[in-house]
Design brief:
It is a single chain. This protein is α+β, with helices and mostly antiparallel strands. The chain contains five helices and 18 strands. The protein is globular, with a radius of gyration of 21 Å. The structure holds FE2/S2 (inorganic) cluster and fe (ii) ion (FE2). FE2/S2 (inorganic) cluster binds next to loops.
């Protein structure tokens, strides 16, 4: 369901921080049919090949542009719904049913993208082109390895994913935006924040009387984690759709895989995430510009220490990528086979 919140009109194209794995899908979404999703303003199609590995192509048939996601999978090979042309996960065309003697040229292929599955997420590589075996592994969320199971719900947030990330690393909004929910127990508006780097991102501590009252982690670029205890944590991944939309995977991790318990946890997860995050969405949708990279005019406060850290980190990584790319723009989804 798409959100009905109004968004301000901003200009600007989808920019990225590259050289990272982005969560773009939950493994639970992959069933028997191909899955079409827009990510980074590009329609993509995901499915499992004959080995069970997740693969991804641009959701556009190279023949005459039909959406491959409307096709079907047989023996791990995707067939276009229009004329039945079949493609493997690396984009190769292996059959053109309407031609009996035509030699399929090498260039007759769909655009493929490098994806990997880890922690029941599908991750998409955005960065310099590299051979598959040279790519680093996706970052690991400790909460995902500590817990034995999780409940998940999906939401659609009406803004750029960078504003979503900044929304969930923000300690100081609780008493205002969430005054009817979280703010009932967190009433003190005075906010002292300490930030320090951790593996793959940073941790933001909310301080009270010199002690850590609460902390949240951001695994760069798009996974937020809140550890409530060893066996119980929340994690939210913000999959970039386009400049104005983000698909959000809200997970509640736990260790109680008992019958009867999980449906209750799933219900509780769905209800609480709906209550709290819809309060966030109403504000985030009004922020202008939508993309944090365009928000140089924002005047940040000491209590925005996590936001300062996040923006510096983005800038630094974007500069590094520009150098790696020879001074050019961060690479967009490429037409090469298998790399972006
Ligand atoms: S458009 Fe895909 S087979 Fe013709
Ligand atoms: Fe919030």
């Amino acid at each position: 369901m798409q959100s009905t919140y109004a968004t301000r009109q901003d200009s600007g194209s989808m920019t990225i921080s590259s050289g990272h794995w982005y969560v773009v899908l939950s493994s639970r979404e992959l069933k028997k049919r191909p899955v079409g999703k827009t990510r980074f303003s590009t329609p993509l199609v995901f499915w499992r090949d004959a080995h069970g590995d997740v693969v991804c192509l641009e959701d556009r048939c190279p023949h005459r542009g039909a959406a491959l996601s409307q096709g079907c999978i047989k023996d791990g090979i995707l067939a276009c719904p229009y004329h039945g042309i079949r493609f493997t996960g690396d984009g190769r065309c292996v059959e053109v049913p309407v031609e009996d003697s035509w030699h399929i040229p090498d260039h007759f292929r769909a655009r493929s993208l490098q994806v990997r599955e880890s922690q029941e997420y599908v991750w998409l590589w955005r960065g310099p082109a590299m051979a598959t075996d040279e790519l680093p592994p996706p970052p690991v969320q400790p909460v995902a390895t500590d817990a034995t199971c999780f409940e998940e719900c999906i939401q659609h947030w009406p803004t750029h994913y960078t504003r979503c990330v900044e929304g969930v690393i923000d300690h100081s909004h609780i008493g205002f935006v969430h005054k009817r929910t979280l703010g009932l127990v967190m009433r003190d508006p005075i906010t002292r924040v300490e930030v320090h780097p951790i593996e793959g991102g940073f941790r933001s501590n909310l301080m009270k009387d010199g002690k850590i009252r609460h902390y949240i982690d951001l695994t760069y670029p798009n996974v937020w984690t809140q550890n409530l205890s060893v066996a119980y944590g929340m994690s939210t991944a913000f999959a970039p759709v386009d400049d104005k939309r983000t698909e959000v995977y809200c997970r509640l991790y736990h260790n109680k895989n008992r019958r009867g318990y999980r449906p209750l946890m799933a219900l509780w997860n769905r209800f609480t995430q709906f209550m709290v995050f819809h309060e966030d969405m109403a504000i985030l949708a009004t922020q202008s510009p939508a993309n944090v990279d365009d928000a140089q005019d924002d005047k940040l406060l000491p209590s925005d220490a996590a936001h300062v850290f996040y923006r510096k980190m983005r800038k630094q990584l974007q500069n590094e990528l520009a150098v790696a790319s020879g001074g050019g723009e961060p690479q967009q989804l490429s037409r090469s086979s298998g790399a972006v």
